[in-house]
Amino acid sequence: MDKPKVVLGVSGGIAAYKACELLRRLTESGHDVRVVPTASALNFVGAATWSALSGNPVSTEVWNDVHEVPHVRIGQHADLVVVAPATADTLARAAHGLADDLLTNTLLTARCPVVFAPAMHTEMWEHPATRENVATLRRRGAVVVEPAVGRLTGVDTGKGRLPDPGEIFEVCRRVLARGTAAPDLGGLHVVVSAGGTREPLDPVRFLGNRSSGKQGYALARTAAARGARVTLVEANTGLPDPAGVDVVHVGTAVQLREAVLKAAAEADAVVMAAAVADFRPAEYATGKIKKKDGVEAPAVTLVRNPDILAEISADRARTGQVVVGFAAETDDVLANGRDKLRRKGCDLLVVNEVGERRTFGSEENEAVVLAADGAETPVPHGPKEALADIVWDLVEARVDRAGR
Ligand code: CTP
């Protein structure tokens, strides 16, 4: 069988050296990789390195090897194009369809999935021009990976760091396995809740939980990458807003309910990944609760919070709306999951087994997705993005586009 053909575009940023590691992973896992650097990328890593590591010729211009018409052929024959690092300039040229070097020509002739892994200074990433270019590329079906937060070129830190080459490799593998980065959720509006609610006792204290919000963010990011309009209702994650996603920030379960119900009124699917507190303090002290010598510790009385998942499942804002819940179980995972699916009335329930191998805060997840129609989809241990993609596959198969 032919090896899958991958084009690795490299643009001119300091992170170009990290693309060597991505290249090595791709070649070692059986991919035929053709590196297409921009001219400025060669200021960071030379053509000899790319050529030696890939075992293929390297050129930056359309004028080299003209008899082979590489500017057309490389893109046409690729199974995947990944650009890492993608600078602000390369994203802009790609978004505007320029064809002024071999990489941009390749991007225009490629009919395969395209992945961009941006790396740049925080200001450049946050600039409205870059945001719009990213949104354009995503709308057209490219996967634009969120940059990581951390140390940048100099002493500065912030968002804009190239994600770990291993992470980019995983994204490439998933996209190649799906065979598409097509915007199959295009035209759909989805709502995702993420994080954990905080129920205040007084101005400085709250009852909370350990949900990191990472699974919800992975759902939002993958849905946006697959072309959906995404509203992310976020509670206390402290995570930066994903590009191309509308984010509503809330604190408590009551606020989360209000924001989710508002967004759900127009939505094709609602995924409740947030850890919503089942109870809140019955009373809120407007001043800080003080300890007093000789006085007993105060008792906290709790009252039930509304069950948002059950409510939106019972009262669908539109016909054919798909509602997805999450459940964490320690024992009798499947039996408890099935029971919860029935009680909540949702269409899909993602059941995580929690316990010693905890899921909270980690980058990975393992689950089984139960469907109201009886289907069971086991999701092996893997990145939260992989679980997110499976959830969207199942949602996509159930969403009623005709009823919209
Ligand atoms: N959920 C909700 N509103 C709540 C509580 C939970 O919408 N007040 C949603 C969560 O977002 C999640 C699912 O319901 O999708 C989790 O259900 P829940 O009954 O809270 O599960 P557990 O916490 O596992 O509850 P228990 O084991 O107590 O039944």
From TrEMBL:
Catalytic activity, reaction form: N-[(R)-4-phosphopantothenoyl]-L-cysteine + H(+) = (R)-4'-phosphopantetheine + CO2; (R)-4'-phosphopantothenate + L-cysteine + CTP = N-[(R)-4-phosphopantothenoyl]-L-cysteine + CMP + diphosphate + H(+)
Domain Flavoprotein as annotated: residue spans: 5-172
Keyword vocabulary terms for this entry: Decarboxylase, Flavoprotein, FMN, Ligase, Lyase, Magnesium, Metal-binding, Multifunctional enzyme
GO terms for cellular component: phosphopantothenoylcysteine decarboxylase complex
Coiled-coil annotated residue ranges, if any: none
Domain of life: Bacteria
Stretch list, region Phosphopantothenoylcysteine decarboxylase: 1-189
Cofactor mode of binding and number, as noted: Binds 1 FMN per subunit.
SUPFAM superfamilies reported in the protein's UniProt record: CoaB-like (SSF102645), Homo-oligomeric flavin-containing Cys decarboxylases, HFCD (SSF52507)
Cofactor(s) named in the record: Mg(2+); FMN
A Pfam family of this chain: Flavoprotein
Binding site for CTP: 278, 288, 306-309, 326, 340, 344
Protein's job: Catalyzes two sequential steps in the biosynthesis of coenzyme A. In the first step cysteine is conjugated to 4'-phosphopantothenate to form 4-phosphopantothenoylcysteine. In the second step the latter compound is decarboxylated to form 4'-phosphopantotheine. Catalyzes two steps in the biosynthesis of coenzyme A. In the first step cysteine is conjugated to 4'-phosphopantothenate to form 4-phosphopantothenoylcysteine, in the latter compound is decarboxylated to form 4'-phosphopantotheine.
HAMAP family found in the cross-reference section: CoaBC
Name of this chain's protein: Coenzyme A biosynthesis bifunctional protein CoaBC
Organism: Streptomyces genisteinicus
